[in-house]
C-alpha cells in the first residue's frame, strides 16, 4: 500500500512513497529474506503495482505476489469519475475480475498472480459467480491461489463449502483488520478461518500508527496527516491500551510498534506491515526477534479487553455446560506462548 506516490499530494497517493524510496524498502525487505508482497489494483491509483513491476525483475520466482480486485480505479481517478460505464469494472463480478486481473498482470509485468484476493464483499455478486470465476482464473494459469479480504464469516463459509462440493478452488487466505484496538476478528472470522483452514493475514496491526506511541494525548492535533488515526484518539480506552504497550516495550527494550506487531503474530499467518521509510521497515522487522511471555500477553490482552457481542457474550457462561466453565479453544488464538 505504501508504494506508489509520484506526488505526495496527489489523489490516491496519500499513503505512498516515491519510486526511489519504494525500491530501497523493497531491496532491504528482500535482502532480509522477505518473499511475500501484498498490494492491490487500487493502491496509489495503480502505481503500487506498477512500481513493483519495475522492481521485481529476475526475482519474480522467489516472490509470492498478492494483489486484489473489487474496488474501481475510476472512483479515485478524476478523469474517469464522470463516466458511469466504468461501474461495470467494480465489484466482484466476472467482468470486473477479468478486466482488473489482466490490468494488474500488465502493470506488474508478470504472467500470473500467486494469491488473488477479492478486496471486499459488496453484497451484489452471487457467491456462485465469484467462486466459479476465480476457479476459471486458476485453471487457466493466471492465478495460483485465491484469498478473501474484509468479508463476513458467513460468506466465506458458504463460498468454501460450495467450492468443496463443486471441486472449485477455495479461499486459502483471509485478510482483515486486527490489532489491540480492533479485536472483533476473534469473534467469528478467526474461528471460521481455523475450521476452514484459511491463513490469516491481518492489516492495520499498528492501528494506523497509533500504537507506535509517536502521538501523545496532550499534544496531538487533528490534521490531514493524522486523519487516519483521528478516530483512535477520541477513545480514552485506546490511550490506556497504548500505555500498556509502551510499558511492556520499555520492560523488554523494544519499541511499541514491535510489541504491537508481535502481539498479532499468535493469531495470524503473516501480519502485513506498511512501512513508508527504510527506518520504519527495519523497526517493524524487529518484531520477529523476540517472543512475548505469558504474563506480557496476559497484560496486553487484559488492557485491550472489549465487550463481546451476543451470542459471543455467552461464551464464558457455565450453565450451558453443566456447571463447567466454557473457554474459547486455544487453537482459535494460535499456539500458547512458551
From TrEMBL:
Pfam families: Aldo_ket_red. The keyword Ligase does not apply. GO terms for molecular function: oxidoreductase activity. This is NADP-dependent oxidoreductase domain-containing protein. One of its GO terms (cellular component) is cytosol. Residues 15-303 form the NADP-dependent oxidoreductase domain. Keywords: Oxidoreductase. Transmembrane segments: none annotated. The keyword ATP-binding does not apply. It comes from the Eukaryota. InterPro entries: AKR_Detox_Biosynth (IPR050523), NAD(P)_OxRdtase_dom_sf (IPR036812), NADP_OxRdtase_dom (IPR023210).
Amino acid at each position: 500500500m505504501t508504494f506508489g506516490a509520484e506526488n505526495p499530494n496527489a489523489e490516491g497517493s496519500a499513503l505512498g512513497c516515491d519510486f526511489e524510496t519504494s525500491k530501497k524498502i523493497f531491496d532491504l525487505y528482500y535482502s532480509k529474506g522477505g518473499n511475500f508482497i501484498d498490494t492491490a489494483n487500487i493502491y496509489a491509483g495503480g502505481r503500487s503495482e506498477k512500481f513493483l513491476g519495475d522492481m521485481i525483475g529476475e526475482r519474480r520466482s522467489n516472490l509470492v505476489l498478492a494483489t486484489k480486485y473489487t474496488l474501481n480505479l475510476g472512483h479515485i481517478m478524476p478523469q474517469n469519475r464522470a463516466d458511469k460505464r466504468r461501474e461495470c469494472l467494480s465489484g466482484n463480478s466476472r467482468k470486473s475480475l477479468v478486466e482488473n486481473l489482466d490490468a494488474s498482470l500488465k502493470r506488474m509485468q508478470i504472467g500470473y498472480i500467486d494469491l488473488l484476493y477479492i478486496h471486499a464483499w459488496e453484497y451484489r455478486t452471487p457467491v456462485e459467480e465469484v467462486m466459479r470465476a476465480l476457479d476459471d482464473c486458476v485453471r487457466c494459469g493466471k492465478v495460483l491461489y485465491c484469498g478473501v479480504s474484509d468479508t463476513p464469516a458467513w460468506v466465506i463459509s458458504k463460498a468454501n463449502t460450495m467450492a468443496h462440493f463443486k471441486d472449485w478452488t477455495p479461499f486459502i487466505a483471509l485478510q482483515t483488520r486486527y490489532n489491540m484496538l480492533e479485536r472483533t476478528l476473534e469473534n467469528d472470522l478467526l474461528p471460521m478461518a481455523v475450521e476452514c483452514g484459511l491463513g490469516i493475514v491481518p492489516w492495520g496491526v499498528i492501528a494506523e500508527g497509533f500504537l507506535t506511541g509517536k502521538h501523545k494525548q496532550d499534544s496531538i492535533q487533528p490534521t490531514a496527516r493524522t486523519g487516519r488515526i483521528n478516530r483512535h484518539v477520541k477513545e480514552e480506552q485506546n490511550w490506556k491500551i497504548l500505555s500498556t504497550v509502551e510499558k511492556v516495550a520499555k520492560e523488554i527494550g523494544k519499541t511499541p510498534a514491535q510489541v504491537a506487531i508481535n502481539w498479532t503474530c499468535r493469531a495470524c499467518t503473516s501480519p502485513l506491515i506498511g512501512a513508508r521509510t527504510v527506518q520504519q521497515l527495519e523497526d517493524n522487522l524487529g518484531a520477529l526477534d523476540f517472543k512475548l511471555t505469558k504474563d506480557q500477553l496476559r497484560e496486553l490482552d487484559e488492557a485491550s479487553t472489549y465487550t463481546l457481542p451476543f451470542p459471543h457474550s455467552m461464551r464464558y457462561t457455565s450453565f450451558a455446560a453443566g456447571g463447567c466453565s466454557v473457554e474459547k479453544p486455544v487453537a482459535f488464538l494460535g499456539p500458547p506462548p512458551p
